[in-house]
């Protein structure tokens, strides 16, 4: 247990020591998204009845920031340790692969929650949000951060250098995030793209998270919870298997 707590503390301290880069920068990016999109589309787009576009946009930006930073935390830590060679100091101590996984995922959730909360607090100056179902907000925030933390571990294990990790993020994470309904409702899309959107798990994370604020969503929050929970279980089992066999971690 001491090894697990030490590794968790190390991973949290790692991003907190450079919080200007890991926390403040993504908050500023989300704020710029809000200002630009609301300036262009406010009054021209209405997704839900009695919900302004700027209010609709904020939960999506919060969740997008949370997800991207949760992924970045675990993936960047692992690839950095592999490239510098100091990952051996995490593999030698008597830490089980389950504890290793839990420490990385919990640290990823912590960074995601900190950034997401920061985005929410900053954007509250510009919009009024409802809080229809806070438990839904919490559930999807935690599950979303856990999924992206696990996916970050997978990416960090798979990648051998930084440009491979960047390709994973730019060609998988970024498109799935931007095409998940952050800036629009999928009901505004043609029927074919609506069906395609239902194969994007990040869509369910954002839609369920947004339901917690407004009490309305594109699909049932229970459906979203089922999909997101299933993704978390599947990714966790796969990640634990990779760690157990030492894939690309042990020579």
Our measurement of the CA-to-CA distance between the termini, rounded to an integer number of angstroms, reads 26 Å
What is the β-strand count?
0
Radius of gyration: 18 Å
- The helix/strand order is HHHHHHHHHH
The poorly predicted ranges are: none
Number of helices: 10
Helix content: over 70%
Q: Strand count, sense and closure of the main sheet?
A: none
What class would the helix/strand composition place it in?
A: mainly alpha
Whole-number mean pLDDT: 91
- Portion of residues in beta strands equals under 5%
Number of domains: 1
Gross geometry? globular
Main attributes of the structure:
single chain, 251 residues, mainly alpha, 10 helices
Could you provide a short overview of the structure?
The protein has 251 residues and is mainly alpha-helical. The protein has ten helices and no strands. The chain has one domain (2-245).
Topology (elements, then pairings):
Blueprint: H1 2-16, H2 19-41, H3 53-84, H4 88-91, H5 97-123, H6 134-158, H7 162-178, H8 191-197, H9 201-214, H10 221-245
Explain how this protein is built.
The protein is 75% helix and 0% strand. With 251 residues, it is an all-alpha fold. It has one domain (2-245). The two termini are 26 Å apart.
């Amino acid at each position: 247990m001491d090894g697990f707590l030490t590794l968790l503390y190390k991973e949290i301290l790692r991003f907190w020591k450079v919080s200007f880069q890991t926390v403040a920068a993504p908050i500023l990016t989300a704020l710029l998204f809000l200002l630009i999109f609301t300036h262009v589309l406010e009054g021209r787009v209405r997704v839900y009845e009695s919900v302004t576009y700027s209010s609709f946009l904020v939960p999506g930006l919060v969740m997008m920031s949370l997800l991207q930073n949760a992924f970045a935390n675990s993936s960047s830590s692992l690839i950095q340790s592999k490239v510098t060679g100091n990952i051996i100091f995490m593999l030698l101590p008597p830490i089980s692969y389950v504890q290793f996984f839990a420490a990385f995922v919990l640290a990823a959730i912590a960074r995601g929650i900190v950034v997401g909360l920061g985005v929410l607090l900053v954007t509250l100056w510009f919009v009024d949000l409802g809080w229809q179902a806070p438990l839904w907000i919490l559930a999807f925030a935690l599950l979303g951060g856990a999924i992206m933390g696990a996916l970050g571990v997978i990416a960090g294990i798979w990648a051998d250098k930084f440009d491979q990790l960047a390709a994973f993020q730019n060609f998988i994470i970024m498109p799935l995030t931007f095409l998940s309904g952050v800036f629009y409702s999928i009901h505004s899309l043609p029927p074919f793209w609506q069906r395609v959107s239902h194969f994007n798990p990040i869509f369910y994370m954002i839609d369920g998270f947004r339901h917690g604020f407004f009490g309305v969503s594109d699909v049932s929050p229970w459906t979203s919870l089922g999909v997101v929970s299933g993704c978390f279980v599947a990714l966790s089992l796969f990640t634990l298997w990779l760690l157990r066999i030492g894939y690309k971690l042990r020579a």
